[in-house]
Amino acid sequence: xxxxxKLVLAKAKASDLESVKKLNCWGCxxxxxxxxxxxxxxxxxxxxxxxxxxxxxxxGLLSLTELYLRRNQIPSLSELSHxxxxxxxxxxxxxxNPCCGTDSSRYRLTVLRCLPRLQKLDNQVVTEDEVAxxxxxxxxxxxxxxxxxxxxxxxxxxxxxxxxxxxxxxxxETNKIREELGMKPLSRDKFxxxxxxxxxxxxxxxxxxxxxxVLLLLRDLDEEELRIVHTATLNRLxxxxxxxxxxxxxxxxxxxx
Length: 257
Hints:
With 257 residues, the chain is of the alpha/beta class. It contains eight helices and six strands. It has a six-stranded mixed β-sheet. The relative contact order is 0.08.
């Protein structure tokens, strides 16, 4: 069943789609929710107990804070990639979908790696330590094929200079991290442009660009997001410290701040 304008306005008791802030479509046997591409201001959305299989129509709901999708037909966690750029999303209920699988711990870590800003997942509060663990151990959620357009040059093929450009690599690293944190990607003009090399970069240069990307990203994080990064960094350092046989080093360093 397709969710129509008439049904939305009747349920929300509204006169136009843009004025709808909350909508409850629980148990309506919905399969087509493309109407949400016309509803940019919705904040709380209940779509539980339907037959929805894709979340792509929700990708532009930048005001969305709560999303309830329990008992639908979401086939893969890759559909969560459509929610990555929703800056205000804090509550998600996704349980009882095919994408959840049988390993609840693995599922939860993967969701939180993709959407680390969530404060509640499946009616359970999300902790900072849990998010930090998810950023290290959760599986990467890949965007479904065809969701991201490929930038082509005039002859219809990827531009070779851009492919090898360290600026392009730096930008990709930064935007990959921003994407995992649910932030909007930066445009190319936000980066300073170095000279383009004729060959691909060495691994050491790529690691340098990764560090640069992380430092650039930190400028845009608020206090809550910086705390998440801080916890993840400490946990990551702990693994290196324990591996080197110096478990006291990290404790001594952290106590001085």
